[in-house]
Design brief:
This protein is about 60% helix and about 5% strand. By secondary structure, it is mainly α.
Length: about 180
């Protein structure tokens, strides 16, 4: 039994030495990674960059961090009438947020009326559903129309700001590269 153990140890040692010698004489396997797949550039279909042309340069009208129209402020600053129109534009754009909140409340009222109407049995459930959901629809439609009207008015302020600037400085005009009118 001792002889079998010695033979096994000798055999393992011999195989280990031969493997080590073989490994020392051969190069390690070189693995190559496949070429990376080309990622398509995502397209932003909801991009809302509004641009204007000034002294041959296309510049952004709006900033991601400042109020809408902030890109025009440094250029319009020498003309007080243009700045006052730009201020009115920015103020009315900020005021338009209330219509978004009101519309959200309208959607919640429609959903809440629908759910509450189905929880209450009989004619009373139908009355609750129709009343609450009807108020929600009125809020939603009213906020949509009010928001569109206010945004159209505010866009006119921006157009008037550029028009006032171009009137005061006809040799250094600004050209808006977007429409200032909404159409339904």
């Amino acid at each position: 039994m001792r002889r079998g153990f010695q033979t096994a140890v000798t055999l393992i040692a011999l195989v280990s030495f031969q493997t080590a010698a073989l490994a020392a004489n051969t190069k390690p396997l070189q693995t190559e990674a496949p070429a990376p797949l080309r990622q398509p550039t995502p397209q932003d279909h909801f991009d809302c960059n509004r641009e204007f042309l000034y002294r041959g340069n296309v510049l952004k009208c709006d900033s991601d961090r400042a109020a809408d129209g902030a890109g025009l402020r440094p250029i319009l600053s020498p003309v007080p009438n243009a700045i006052s129109e730009l201020d009115a534009y920015q103020k009315s754009r900020n005021s338009a947020k209330i219509f978004g909140y009101t519309g959200t409340l309208g959607v919640a009222a429609v959903a809440g009326g629908w759910i509450a109407g189905h929880q209450i049995q009989g004619d009373r459930g139908i009355i609750v559903r129709n009343t609450v959901a009807g108020i929600g629809v009125l809020l939603l439609v009213g906020s949509l129309l009010g928001g569109l009207i206010l945004l159209n008015i505010s866009e006119n302020h921006l157009y008037d700001a550029v028009k006032n600037y171009n009137t005061a400085k006809p040799n250094d005009p600004i050209e808006l590269r977007f429409s200032h009118q909404f159409s339904l």
